[in-house]
Each structure stands twice: as C-alpha cells, then as structure tokens.
Amino acid sequence: MSAPRGQFSTKFGFIMAAAGSAVGLGNIWGFPTQTASNGGAAFVVVYFVLAFLLAYPALMAELVIGRHARANIVTALGGLSDKPAASLFGRFTGFYGVITASLILSFYTIVAGWMICYLAAAGTDLLGQDQATQWLTSMSTERNLLSSAVFAGLTLYIISSGVQDGIEKWSSRLMPALIGLLLLLIAYVLTQKGAMEGLKVYLLPDLSRVFEPTLIVSAMGQAFFSLSLGVGTMLVYGSYLSKEESLPRMGALVTVIDVGIAFTAGLLILPAMFVAQEAGITITDAAGNLIGDSDIVFQVLPPLFDSMGPAGNFVALAFFTLMTIAALTSSISMLEVPVSMTVERFNVSRPVAALVIGGSIFAISCLLIFNFGTLFGFVIDLTTKYSQPLLGVVICLYCGWIFKRHALLKELQEGQEDIAQTLFWKIWPLYVKIICPLLILAAFWLSLG
C-alpha cells in the first residue's frame, strides 16, 4: 500500500467508521420518519428482512472490491478488467460516483447545518437569548451560509487529518457518544405520558400491510441507502481494511450496527411523537397519517421540547447533539470519496486535497442556498433517487460479472481461509451477480411511478 493511503489500525476503528458512515441522518431521522409514513411496525419488519437480503450483499460487493484494489473508486472499478471497454466504463462509473458523493454532501451540509443551528438554539434558549434563538431557528440565507460553513469546516478538518488520525480517531469517539446519547434520550422520553402508545405503533405490526408495494419499495430504498451504498464510501473504507480481517464478518457487523441503531432511533422518535400529541401538538397530516420527513424534526419535536419546561432545553441540547454527530460521521465518509481519488490520482497531499475538494463542495452548497427553491430538491432527486441506485447496480454487476471468480475467492480467503466451504460463498456470488441488481432496479423503477 502506498504511504498516503493509510489503513485502519484496529477492527473497532473500521467498524466505528463504517457504521458511522451508514448511521447518519438516514437512520436517526430517515428510518423513523419512513416508519411513521408507512404504517409503523409493518415497515420495520420488511426493513429488517430487506436489510439482509439486499443491503448486506451489496455492501459486501463494495468492501471486497475496495480491499482487493487498495485504491479509490475510480482506480478500483477501472482496474477490475483488462478489457479496454470495461475498464473505461469502470473508471467512468467511479468518476460519476465521486461526483454523486460530492453533490450529496453539498445538500447534506446544508441539512446538517440546520441541526447545528437548533443545537446552538438550545444553548441560547438556556441563556435566555431569545433574539439569537429566533434567528437560529428561522430560515434565512445568512443563517444557512454560516451553519453550513461551520459543518463543512468540521468535516474538512477530520478528513485532512488522515485515515487513522482523522476518520478512525473521530469515528471511534463520535459513535459511542452517539449511542450513549440515543439511549439516554430514549430512557427519558419513555417516562413521558403518551410514549407507550408510540411504542405500540412501532412494535406491534399490522402484518396485512407487509406486502403493500409502496411499503416494500420504501423499505428497500431505506435499507439500501441507509448503508451509504452506491457512491463508493464503503468501497473506499474497504480499501483501508487489513487483509487479516474477514470481510463477511466485518460487513455483517456493520449491517447489524446500522440496522440496530436505526431501530433504536425509532424507539426515540415514534414515542416522542405521541408524547407530543399528549402535549397538544399535531402529529398527523390532513389525511390522518403520521407526519413524516423533516416535519418530525423541525415541526413536531421543537414544540415538544418547549412543552417540557426547563428540562426541555437539556433534552433539545442532547437531541440535536445526537443529530449533529450522526450527520458528521456520514459526511466524513462522503468527503473521503473525492479526496482519496484526488490524493491518489493527482499526487496531491491530503490537507491540500481536502481543502480544495471541501471548499469546492461548500461552494456548491452556497449555490444551493442562494437558489434553494429551484436547485435543492433537484439535486436531492438527481443523486439519491436516480444516480445512487444506478451506481449501486453497476458496482454489483462489476463485482459479480467482471471480478473474476478465482480472484474474488482469493480476496475473501485473505481473512477467512475456509470461506469456500461456507454458506456465504455458496449463495453470495450468484446473489450479487443477479438478485441484487434486479432488486435495486425493481425498487428504482417503482420509485419513478
């Protein structure tokens, strides 16, 4: 391995970094809101099944390509085939993945900035600075620019420090803090009136709904996207993983942690919604369905915190700290995709690459802020609705069809010599070659309807 690349020094460091990439706002915010929008516990059941039938095999495709290539996504996909056309298309796919990850980070930075604003507002509220609180919780160009700059700076600082001193060090600190805060908040919310009703909605499934097409598509998309698949983040992290580690076990641990934290976040958000209802806050839309999307975070929860009296400020402080940490653990993985490519392909030092790439992505964030109504939603749809699933399909196809079977087996045997005799090896190659691409394409097609 070349010197600039670095490597995760411990198994714990890799698991925390990979889980941190997966555990972003898509888990703490996205999973509970999808659950709320899709019938509660029935969605949870389908999500659990699809996380292991779809997301885990696709995650393994990225990890195995990354560790085999020991390179960024462009070099990794381009080097899987010695045929010029396949190699060229692989490099093109890698570059498109870099662009997609950068565009996702550009709008993600803005949303994460909102979390920082509400975190700061909890502090100013405690200090009685009402004017500052009002400014921090009101949508404005100036506020969005400042908060996005702060978040972008935090992400840039971590990535510029390298793999061990940046990604691994901070993921190993932030993820345990995230889990601890999440558990503390759950313990508090479950003592509030109305919480048990939310638990019933979350934990008692209406099994008649598990075969609803819209619910299945939503669960499939959530399972796939919450693991940061399709843009090369896991591929790059896999390239920093020691050859001594068993990839199937590492992938399974990351999937279990991701699914586990998503489920645990639901134990906070859904009960909190019904606690809010007890406080007189509306938690359903005009059709009588539970409010989903960002409305939970920005319309339901802040009034709930206000209704809790003096304790509400501390709960708000803990909650938005949790959200900011979740956003940061994901953003560092997204920035690493273009930075790793720049460092390796253009022989640029990591701090310079991080500054140039991070600054360029922040410039795109500024463009979105100044043209919020026309560009913000467009970029989200372009990247997460269209680009990410198609990139995921190509990565699975390259792993299944271009990556030669003997080379694939040899790579997996690096960390687990008996892999050829395991159930994983008997099922996974065919699964990632045919089943995963078809499932992703089916979800993609149905999402366009």
- Any low-confidence stretches, pLDDT <50, length ≥5? none
Helix run count: 18
Q: What portion of residues is helical?
A: over 70%
Strand content: under 5%
Write down the overall mean pLDDT: 90
Reported by name, the CATH topology is Hydantoin permease
- Assigned CATH class: Mainly Alpha
How large, in whole angstroms, is the Cα Rg? Answer: 21 Å
Helix/strand/pairing class, anyone? mainly alpha
Overall 3D form: globular
Q: Sketch the major β-sheet.
A: none
Report the CATH architecture: Orthogonal Bundle
Termini separation: 46 Å
Question: Could you say how many structural domains there are in total?
Answer: 1
H-E string: HHHHHHHHHHHHHHHHHH
What is the count of β-strands?
Answer: 0
Blueprint of the fold:
Layout: H1 11-22, H2 25-37, H3 41-69, H4 73-78, H5 84-126, H6 130-137, H7 141-160, H8 163-189, H9 195-203, H10 213-225, H11 233-239, H12 247-278, H13 295-307, H14 310-346, H15 350-370, H16 372-402, H17 405-413, H18 423-447
Transmembrane segments: 12-29, 41-65, 95-121, 145-163, 175-195, 215-238, 250-274, 311-332, 352-380, 386-403, 423-446
Membrane topology: Multi-pass membrane protein
Keywords: Membrane, Transmembrane, Transmembrane helix, Transport
